[in-house]
Structures are given as C-alpha cells and as structure tokens.
Specification:
Blueprint: H1 9-19, E1 39-44, E2 57-61, E3 71-73, E4 76-78, E5 88-90, E6 96-102, E7 111-116, E8 130-134, E9 144-146, E10 149-151, E11 161-163, E12 170-175, E13 180-181, E14 194-197, E15 202-205, E16 214-220, E17 227-233, E18 242-254, E19 257-266, E20 271-278, E21 286-287, E22 300-307, E23 313-319, E24 330-334, E25 347-350, E26 361-369, E27 372-379, E28 388-394, E29 402-403, E30 416-425, E31 431-438, E32 445-451, E33 470-471
Parallel strand pairs: 6-12
Antiparallel strand pairs: 1-2, 1-6, 3-4, 4-5, 7-8, 7-12, 9-10, 10-11, 13-33, 14-15, 15-16, 16-17, 18-19, 19-20, 20-21, 22-23, 23-24, 24-25, 26-27, 27-28, 28-29, 30-31, 31-32
Family: Belongs to the glycosyl hydrolase 43 family.
Keywords: Glycosidase, Hydrolase
Site (Important for catalytic activity, responsible for pKa modulation of the active site Glu and correct orientation of both the proton donor and substrate): 302
C-alpha cells in the first residue's frame, strides 16, 4: 500500500493491538520535514478512535480519496480510504472526514458527499447511495420515527427517510472545505463576543466585567483558532468616567478608523455606552472622554453599529429596563459621519413582547441583506437555559421591525443559554454566527461558531448550538 497517513510506530502498534484500526504494511510515510509535491490533509470527525494520536488529522503524501461509504462493525464503524487506511469511529454510521489537498492539481471547491446507510429509502430514479452537493451540509445525528419508518433533517433541509424505526444513517465527506472544527472555539470565558473582519483577520472583543484590563482582544484567520491580542483598555488607559462593569464591546470600522463601542458603569451609577477610537482594530484605543449615550434615569447598554445601504451610520442599543422592572426597548438612531455623536431622532425598534423573551430583549446586531435589515437579538435570562437568539426584519433601518417569532438559536447540544451574537462572513463566504453559551460546568460563557442559512428570507442556524464536528466556516 502506498502513501498512508503519517503515523508513529507507537500509534500503529497500539491500533494494531486491538484499537480497531488496520495497520498499513510497507508504508511510504510522509514526515513533517518532507516537502510534499502533492499531499492530502485528512481531518477526522470527533467520533474518530485515535488512542495515542493527539492530533485530529493526518497528512498523507499524494492524493487520497474516499467514496463516502461507512461500514458498521459491531458498535462502531469504519471507512476505507483509497490508500487502504481504515479509520474507525465510535458508533454506527459515524464516519465523518474532510479531505483537503495541496499541490495536487486544480483547486477544489468546497463540496459535501452525503452517503446514506443501507436502510435509506431511495427516491424514484435515484439509484446511487449518495448525493453530492456544492458547499457544506451537516447533520446532528438526530432521527425522528414516523411509523413504520424514520427520517432526519439535514442542515440544507433535506429530509431523507429510512426503513424502520431509529434507522437513520449518514456519513459525510467534505472536500476542499478546509477541514473540520468543533465547538467551543474559545474554551475560556468570552461572553458577549463582538467580532468583525478588519480586512486581514477576524478580531473579537469580549466582556471583562471588573477585570483590571478591560475587554480582551483575540485574532483569528478562520474563526476557529484564536490568539490573544491584548485589550481595548489596558488598566492604564481605562476611561476616567467609568467605574467598572465593562460589558458588551464591539469594534467597527467607521470611516477610515475604528471605534470600540462598549458598556461601562458611569460614576453616577448608571450603565452607559462609551466610544473609543483607534487607527487599528487592535488599538491603542483612545476613549471619547465621556459617555456617548447616558441617561441619569435609566441604564443604557449593548451598543452595536451598522451602515445602511446608502452609507448612513446608525447606533442601536438597549435600555436596561429589566434591571428596574420595566420593559426593555431596543433603540436606533443615526450617527454623525465620525460615529461619535447621535443625530436625528431616536426610534424604538422593538421591545420584549413575546413569551419566550420574558423580561428582556438585548444584544442587538443588524445585517443588511436582500432588501431587508435583519435585527438579531437575545431574550430572557442570560444566566440560564431560557436565553436564546431571535430575529426581526424591516425594509428600513429604523423599522418598523417584524419579529420572526420563535428563537432561531436556543439551549441544546450540551450548551446552555446561547446568545449575544455577532454575524460575520466566514472565510468560505457563508454567513456565520459567533456567540457565547455556558459550558457544562456553568462556570464560563465560552465562544461558539455556527453557520447561518437563509431559507425563505429569514436566517436560521440549523443543528445548532453544535457539539460535534462541522466543516470549517
């Protein structure tokens, strides 16, 4: 067998000794020091059985392919790659892999092969056991019984049916999609992530509360691997008007510079919205010297910025009415061209009116798309499983906004209270939601990433919050 993935002798021996993998014989193994004319990066899904192999991938010399078939063996399953390698996965029909080539010919556009298990009920005139589709398709392994059969729904709304109860089986092969990832992408506390792309990289800023250095910054090229990049306000540069409670930062490019909009507690005790400027998304930032939005009678929090399709700048924020037993309107108002003063008339875009929202709507983020302005927001209590993300839309930046109704993202997949999201365009060109959720220990709000789709003119976050492997955004 030629050109299997890179494996150490220790790992191969361990697998051959009873871990389910078939050991290659007579391999021509690629080493990390070799310059490969053509190589394939094989990224395995989270159910891959890989004792002694810390990485979630292998790099093989040459072109390696897989037809998408997944073979069940006892309680596990395996795939057979073109080089003879047999990766095993925990559970039946659990094969998920991404194959990405380097210097193997023409570039490959991202595509998904969805291969169905043997119980799949083929549509008429569809003899193949698989479907190929451009772009990314994923599945959370759910299965719904519809006697005497069962079905599941994929991220693109396909609903394949299978003969018998609990019979759903699907394997997924991704080619040219850049590999796989798994949430969380930031495993430590990173609440209220405000994320933008500065033209070179993604920049994320997170709530810091009472920490001495306010608003930690992180950078990423792919929305998955993040690197610490300082703070918006190191302790020596914190605003003089603020006493603490540094919440909900967002950095936006306004004109030729960047503005960090943020929440902090004013010296009079009221939460207020501040602004600080910089020539780079990573600072250093200079505070305006006073709050941008301050009301002696009501806290104001959760500011976001957007341009309308005519290039007019807007600020959108929330009144903290839930802190004093009142409704929580989300306001919108035009800004000056420099983004540092409010102009025009403040409008109420929405308030908490739906049952699932309970006592609060907050954390707005506005996206212009297809003739609509979509206002993403979070509702209910950030502290527990009731927190969720909703959306409303309007044909004008200041409304009136019509709510979709039910939330598009809520507790699930092992994640509690997902919310306070940003919306960005991922490296692959798709719309991506970046948000926080409580970890299993409920000790930190970690950062998650999941793709947004747009069925029927509204956004959806299918199969999310995700816990299993997904194609890179």
């Amino acid at each position: 067998m030629k050109n299997p993935p890179l494996w150490s002798a220790v790992v191969l021996a361990a697998l051959a000794a009873g871990c389910g993998e078939e050991r290659p014989e007579g391999p021509e193994v690629a080493t990390s020091s070799q310059a490969l004319a053509c190589s394939t990066r094989i990224t395995y899904g989270d159910r891959w059985i890989h004792p002694g192999h810390p990485e979630q991938f292998d790099i093989a010399s040459g072109l390696v392919t897989w037809d998408g078939s997944c073979v069940n063996e006892g309680t596990n399953s395996y795939a057979v790659l073109s080089n003879g390698w047999k990766p095993y996965f925990t559970g039946n029909n659990a094969c998920v892999m991404a194959l990405d080539t380097t210097d193997c010919g023409s570039a490959t556009a991202c595509a998904t092969r969805v291969t169905y298990g043997s119980a799949w009920l083929h549509p008429a005139g569809h003899p193949a056991q698989y479907d190929d589709v451009g772009g990314r398709v994923w599945w959370d392994r759910g299965c719904t019984n519809a006697s005497p059969n069962s079905y599941t729904v994929l991220s693109n709304d396909w609903a394949p049916y299978f003969s018998g109860s609990n019979a759903c089986g699907i394997s997924l092969r991704y080619t040219g999609c850049g590999g796989l990832y798994q949430n969380p992408v930031v495993p430590v506390d990173c609440a209220d992530p405000g994320v933008i792309h500065d033209g070179t990289q993604y920049v994320a800023a997170c709530t810091s509360g009472g920490a001495a250095n306010a608003f930690p910054l992180r950078t990423s090229k792919d929305l998955v691997t993040w690197t610490a990049a300082g703070n918006i306000f190191p302790s020596s540069r914190r605003p003089t008007w603020a006493t603490g409670d540094y919440w909900a930062p967002e950095i936006h490019k306004v004109g030729s510079r960047y503005i960090a909009y943020f929440t902090a507690r004013h010296q009079d005790g009221k939460l207020s919205i501040g602004a600080a400027t910089a020539t780079s998304a990573l600072g250093p930032f200079t505070d305006l010297g006073r709050p941008l939005v301050h009301d002696a009678g009501m806290g104001m929090i959760d500011a976001t910025f957007f341009y309308d399709t005519a290039g007019v700048p807007y600020l959108v924020w929330k009144a903290d009415g839930n802190a004093v037993g009142q409704p929580t309107p989300i306001y919108g108002q035009t800004l000056s061209a420099d983004g540092l003063s409010l102009t025009g008339t403040r409008r109420t875009l929405m308030s908490n009116t739906l049952g699932w929202e309970a006592h609060v709507v907050e954390a707005p983020w506005v996206v212009a798309r297809g003739g609509y302005y979509y206002l993403f927001y979070s509702g209910n209590s950030y502290a527990n499983s009731t927190y969720a993300v909703g959306v409303a839309r309007a044909t004008s930046p200041l409304g009136p906004y019509t709510k979709l109704g039910n939330p598009i993202l809520k507790t699930g997949g092992g994640w509690v209270g997902p919310g306070h999201n940003s919306v960005v365009t991922g490296p692959g060109g798709e719309t991506v939601m970046v948000y926080h959720a409580w970890n299993s220990a409920h000790t930190a709000r970690v950062m998650l990433v999941d793709a947004i789709t747009w069925p029927n003119g509204w956004p959806a976050v299918p199969e999310a919050p995700s816990s299993g492997s997904r194609p890179m955004p």
